[in-house]
Every structure is written in structure tokens, then in C-alpha cells.
Design a protein that fits this description.
Distance between the termini: 54 Å
Helix content: 25-40%
Number of strands: 16
Structural class: alpha+beta
Shape: elongated
Number of helices: 16
Strand content: 15-25%
Number of domains: 3
Amino acid sequence: MLDLTEDTPKPKIIAGAKHDWELVIGMEVHAQISSNAKLFSGASTTFGAEPNSNVAFVDAAMPGMLPVINKYCVEQAVRTGLGLKAQINLNSAFDRKNYFYPDLPQGYQISQLYHPIVGEGEVLVEMGNGTARLVRIERIHMEQDAGKSIHDMDPNMSFVDLNRTGVALMEIVSRPDIRGPEEAAAYLTKLRQILRYLGTCNGDMQSGAMRADVNVSICLPGQYEKYQATQDFSHLGTRCEIKNMNSMRFIQQAIEVEARRQIAIVESGGKVDQETRLYDPDKGETRSMRSKEEAHDYRYFPDPDLLPLEIEQAWVDNIAATLPELPDAKKSRFIKDFSLTDYDASVLTAETDTAIYFEEVAAGRDGKQAANWVINELFGRLKKDDRDITVSPVTPAQLGGIIDLIAKGDISGKIAKDVFEVSYTTGRDPAEIVETEGMKQVTDTGAIEAAVDDIIAANPAQVAKAKENPKLAGWFVGQVMKATGGKANPKAVNELVAKKLNS
């Protein structure tokens, strides 16, 4: 868990021609709910299906078709709210958000602007170097996704794929608590991690399952503190929304570019217009997409086809009782139970699969040693082969077996790496490898002593030098290890070399 003594990170400051400026950032994250069916229909949500094959009559806005709420999607939204320590609203309601896009057959999107299912929550974002930012969540509401317009299949026509139409989304809206590009990326990373732990969203940004709208504004130093004290937005600059970001790197770039654009406008005596913009990574600029009308893009009214959504506290409590151990709690436990560093614990809890793998390796063994083998050896080898830990050729039991062999003195750390490589490439059991391949460490002091004596006898000049400079004893250790094929117990070799040279 976060050490409460950690400091709040300093805001990003950008030097303008006339003033220094601070950034103020809020994010609206659209997370696709992990569900086999859509929010108001039974149509499949499978990604990559043939165009317009996952479309029910209600998705296509056929006359007389009525939406029916998917209870499982509601449960996933509640689960997400609980995971973000948020208030769950037992009464919520759906509105129609009216706008025209070719890929929205209804002419409106069913959403929850005024009465969301989840209220105030929080996300703790650790930035490293002893700093952390607490980002407040304003609300989470459920809504339908739109379809997809395709413009590159024909020079004269556009096509529409309605497969995504009606897919359930959670819009997770933060307060403007983020103060720099790196913080924005870290917040999205942490939010993605929590959602994946909860199992409510797979977090796949490439497929569009998770994407962010980033609200950026600028203010003079000291103004943000006035906003925090009063919650009066007049102390902040006019915000612009950068739409549909699905890359951590591009999010950081876009924030920086947009902030500098706003600074140039204000310092030249102009006024920033509140609008929705798109980021062009090729040109390194944001460009206007559409203007805002008094901060609202659309017009809303209650959906007449859907009753207010009412849920029971007992149902919410049952969901809360099934929540998994979340990243902050797991990290805190790993540090406490396995004596890990903050860094190692962060790496090992980044993904649920990694945490599960490590915990199986570490069970009944030295936690630090287990962490070193997982992070340094296994991760490095998997990265080389571009493999995920879920398909690791080395099982947790096998990696744990290697650690056990080291602990028993059967193999040295150096031999262990050779055993790991054989196990990785063949899937063989480490103990069997050591036995059949003759890799077992030589612990017979008699045999080791004989090798030491031979090396000393053959190198009298080196012996004389070592007696004058004890640091040169390492040369003899190396020669003995070479002579024994690396199988001699290093500790025994060191002790015998020191004893012989000092006699």
C-alpha cells in the first residue's frame, strides 16, 4: 500500500514567452465491459467478427425493437465502482444522448449523464521517487458504444460496420486532478491494471476496448490551489478535449502539444475556445474536430423505453464480498510477506498472471531469490522470445525446483542458469536434468582440495604474489572452478584456497 509519507508530485510547468504555466488534466476513460453480450441486446461482442455479423434488431434500430438491460453488465459496473472505492448508487437512470452519426442507427446513444450508477471514487497513482498522486473519480456511467465508419475500402464510398453498436461501455470520469503528461499515462496505466484485476475490462487499447478522452487546460501558478479550495472552475483555463486516445505515448505527446498551443493563444491576447480536438501524431499537432455549445455537445432526455435502474444493497454487498485482492493490497502484502523492494513488488503485481506465477514460485522459499529468478531470468528469456508469462515453457513448480536445488547445494547459481535454459527449451524437470546431465555440484571436499593443491603446486609464482596481495586469491578460485567444469561448490573452493594460501 502507499506509504502515506510520500509527497505529492510537483505539477508540470511549461515556460511561455511571458509566464510559466501549469497543466490541469482530467480524463474520461471508455472501458468496454467484459461481457459476451451487448448492453441492451443478446448480440455477441466477439472482436474481429465479419462486419455486421454481431448485430441484433435493436442494435440496428429496427422499428418496434425495445432495449432489455444486461444484468451482468450492471454487475461489472458495480464491481468496478467497488474496486475504485466509489459510491454505488442504488438508483440510476438512462438518457438518450442525441446526435447523428452514420454508424449510430438509432440517432441517439443510451447513456447515464445525470444519474450514473457509480459516484465518487479514487485512484492512487504512484509516480516513483517517493511521490504519489490521488486522482478523484467523479462518476462512472454505463453507455452504448457506436459502430465504425470505414473510409479506406473504396475511393468513392464509405462503409459502416455495426458490430460494436450497442457494446457496453463504462465511462470513467476523473476530476481535473492530473498535473502532467507522465501523470496522465501513469493514471491510465493504474486504472487499466485495476480493471484487469477486477476482470471487468480486458484493457486492450489496440482493439479499442479501452480508450481515453483527455481534457487539457492551462493556468498560472497558484490558480489551481484556488480551484481546489473553492471548486470554482473559473480559476482554471478553458479546457479542450482530445478525443479517442489509445496510446500512452501519444497521450503524453498530445497533452504537451495542446498545452503549448493554448499558451501561445493566451499569451498573444487570444481566447481558447472550448472544443473537441484530434491529435495527429504524424504532424505533431491537435486539430479542431467540433466546437462545444456551452460545454455540451449534445442534448439529453430520459429514455422512455427504460425504467429507472434500481438495485439492492444486499446485491452490491454480495458483489463486494467476491472482489479479488487488488493491486495496492497485493503489492503491500508482497513487500511484507516476501521482503521485496517496492520496485520488485510493483513489477510482480503489474499483471494478475505475473503475480500468481510469482506467488507459486515463492511458496515456502526465499521471496527475494524467487523474485530475482522471475524478474531477471524468466522475464528476460520470455522477452527475448516475445512470449507472455501465461505460455511460459517453465512452470512455477520447475522454477521453484531450480531454487530448491540451489538451496540444497546440489547446484551453484551459475549451473542453475544452465539448468534453467535446458528446462526452458525442453520442458524437462530441473532435478532430472541435473542428474542425467551430470550437472550436480561437487561437494566432496577431498576432491575439491585435490584440485586446489594441483593448481597451487603448478603456479608457485602466482602463490607468492597472492601471499603479498590476498585479493589475487580469486585467480586460484577461478582456476579450480575451471578445472572442475564449474561443478565445485564455490563456497568450499573459496575456503580451501584461503586456507592453503595462508598456511
